[in-house]
Amino acid sequence: MFTSTPILRDLERLMQQIPNFAPRGYGVMVLCAHENTANDCDCAYCLYHTGRGKNIRCMLERCVCMKERIQAGAATQREVLTETLSAIPYPPFQRRLEQHLKESEERPMEFKDTRHRLIFAEAIQKRDIKNYALMSALYLLTADLKLWNVVRRYMEENSIHFNKIKLCGIHPDGYTLFCGAKDLYLGTKHLSVGDLSDPELITPKMFALVCNAMAIRRFGLGAINYRKDESEENA
């Protein structure tokens, strides 16, 4: 710099710039809008896999692409729930989770039944499926038709007004679903890990639904291998 005042220095900088080039800070940012599919996340394409077909094995202790695989719906239920719930260091809960995974290995339960799937598909229409808290709450609330008929009146676009809801005549399982949905949506603590570990308090089916909802809360609808276009196919 050969000038002595701020104004002259600015002019000097301007004169030193390359003609016909935009100043720094005016570049173009390219954002990738591609969403991974189950085929994109096939372990056969991974550098850390060995074997072929059903004999594929990972050379790592923990998959580095697990989040992407779950969100793309390419992970098994065991992988989804293990990744979601392994951070809960409570032995009774982990024992119950392992028992649930063994019992559901042949036929993993993604929804309570067909009616649950259909009601959920209808409930999330025109909702923000990237709002994982909302999706996890709706997943539980739609598992009980009587509960859903009460709660649906307190929904507004992508919001659930739990503070206005008053339950009456709801089955104990419905109340469990409501408490789980409220906890996942608002961060309250109505259901404890001890509650979930007790099979006399939380039935096996309710335990499975709450675990699935926790996976949705963390990873989205890919945790239950759900796609919005499924509602069109089942209609």
Walk me through this protein's architecture.
There is one protein chain. With 235 residues, the protein is mainly alpha-helical. It has helices spanning 6-16, 66-71, 77-85, 91-103, 114-123, 132-141, 145-151, 172-186, 193-197, 204-219, 230-234, and strands at 49-50, 57-58, 155-156, 159-160. It has a domain at 114-234. The protein has a two-stranded antiparallel sheet with strand order 1-2. A two-stranded antiparallel ribbon has the order 3-4. A hairpin with a 2-residue loop joins strand 3 and strand 4 (159-160). The longest helix is centred in the last third of the chain and has 16 residues, at 204-219.
How would you state the average pLDDT, rounded?
86
Give the overall silhouette.
extended
Helix content: 40-55%
Number of beta strands? 4
Strand order of the largest sheet: 1-2
Number of helices: 11
What structural class do you assign from the helix and strand content? Answer: mainly alpha
Quaternary:
single chain
* N/C terminus separation: 72 Å
The biggest beta sheet is recorded as:
2 strands, antiparallel
The proportion of strand residues reads: under 5%
Q: Secondary-structure element sequence?
A: HEEHHHHHHEEHHHH
Which regions are unreliable across 5 or more consecutive residues at pLDDT < 50?
231-235
Radius of gyration (CA) equals: 25 Å
